[in-house]
Design a protein that fits this description.
By secondary structure, the protein is mostly beta strands. The protein has a domain of about 170 residues. It is built from 1 helix and 28 strands. The strands form 7 sheets. The chain has a 4-stranded antiparallel β-sheet, with no helix packed on it. A 4-stranded antiparallel β-sheet has the order 5-6-7-8, with no helix packed on it. A hairpin with a 5-residue loop joins strand 1 and strand 2. The radius of gyration is 20 Å and the shape is globular.
Length: about 375
């Protein structure tokens, strides 16, 4: 069990070494992608990504017996306007979606997609999905947020979703054979923010979108159709929602409450499963949290990392779908770092990665030789 002050130890013993993370030469103009940007590949190596003014940047864990990271590798894209978002398949493939200036000279952005099949290997050529819109819709309809991508973990199909200021939420899908369909409307209501999607294993594609009355959850109901599943009347800090699959065909959304900056979790109520809105503490934090499921002390836990009120990276862990027992946040140091993500490496250790003030990648790893959640010093990639 990792609940309470005894669950996360050693957070202050290495603070002095963490308060001034090293600068990353040549990576000072990088920024985090939308959503998750830290993944474990099919060979167990971690890969981290960042956006630059001209494309993508990538760091890859070195292959054994070497330790540390390789990179950063840069991938320039002509006409790139960013930002990028990504999602991973069950095989470890990372699928990307981003924006670049349309080739027709209109100045409007077009959606582009690519895939990386193995850590450290080249990405596929970027493929254009054109400028999103509906036939007969406004010609000047604009994106309300960055495009996002979701993967069907069983079939391997991918789904690109965009929120339009007039046309609602649109989706374009690629089937397992690689053929893309056209843009189709998922939600008719226009939203002023982006989409947070996920497709749980064996379940339907669903997404959270922020509207004037709170958060709306749309879910697939079969044959490509979607329905408004829940309307959650609560204020949400834009840009803070994230999502994690926390049970069979179940997802939990996390976002920040604007009153005090604290994090909340929300899950659709089901028989035998706690649902609804649940407070997680972490007041004064900023941005979207990083989230992963990991085994801690023999328990299936949800691990969250955030940029805390005092400027440090903070971490909490609790038994998955047991938010009601309470959470306790501990500082990991890394003062001034931001946009943390969490993953589990090939050795089963929890890894927290973030960007320092210069945009360089830094990370800290769990020390599994000690009881509880104890982390080593921050290191530059």
């Amino acid at each position: 069990m990792v609940r309470g002050k005894s669950g996360i130890r050693g957070a202050s013993s290495f603070r002095a070494a963490q308060d001034a993370p090293p600068s990353g030469q040549g990576s000072r103009r990088s920024s985090p992608p939308a959503g998750n940007w830290l993944f474990k590949g099919g060979d167990g190596r971690l890969t981290a990504y960042a956006c630059t003014p001209h494309g993508l940047m990538r760091w890859t864990e070195a292959a054994a017996p070497r330790t540390g990271w390789t990179g950063p590798d840069t991938f320039g894209i002509e006409g790139w306007t960013g930002p990028a978002a990504m999602a991973q398949s069950s095989e470890g493939y990372v699928h990307f979606v981003a924006l670049r200036a349309a080739q027709d000279g209109s100045g409007r952005p077009e959606i582009i997609v690519s895939t990386q099949f193995q850590p450290g290997r080249p990405m596929t050529e970027w493929h254009s999905l054109g400028t999103p819109g509906l036939r007969g819709g406004p010609a000047d309809d604009r994106l309300a947020g960055p495009p996002r991508i979701a993967v069907n973990q069983r079939s391997g199909s991918t789904h690109v979703l965009v929120s339009m200021r007039h046309g609602g939420v649109l989706r374009r899908s690629r089937n397992a054979e690689g053929a893309w369909g056209g843009w189709k409307q998922v939600a008719p209501e226009p939203y002023g923010s982006g989409v947070t999607p996920l497709m749980p294993v064996g379940g339907q594609l669903e997404m959270l979108v922020l509207g004037p009355a709170g958060a709306d959850r749309w879910s697939g109901i079969g044959q490509g159709r979607f329905a408004l599943a829940d309307r959650i009347p609560t204020p949400v800090v834009p840009g803070s929602p994230t999502v994690c699959e926390t049970g069979p065909r179940r997802v939990t959304y996390f976002w920040r409450y604007p009153g005090d900056g604290s994090l909340v979790a929300w899950r659709a109520a089901r028989q035998g499963v706690q649902g609804g809105l649940m407070g997680l503490g972490g007041a004064g934090g900023r941005g979207a949290p990083g989230v992963v499921r990991a085994v801690v002390g023999g328990y299936d836990c949800t691990v969250l990392a955030q940029s805390g009120a005092e400027g440090d990276i903070e971490l909490t862990a609790y038994v998955t779908e047991n938010e009601g027992y309470g959470t306790w946040w501990a500082s990991l140091g890394g003062h001034g770092a931001y946009a943390p993500q969490v993953a589990v490496d090939a050795a089963g250790r929890i890894v927290v990665a973030a960007f320092d003030a210069d945009g360089a990648l830094i990370c800290t790893r769990q020390d599994t030789t000690q009881q509880g959640l104890v982390f080593g010093p921050w290191e530059a990639a």
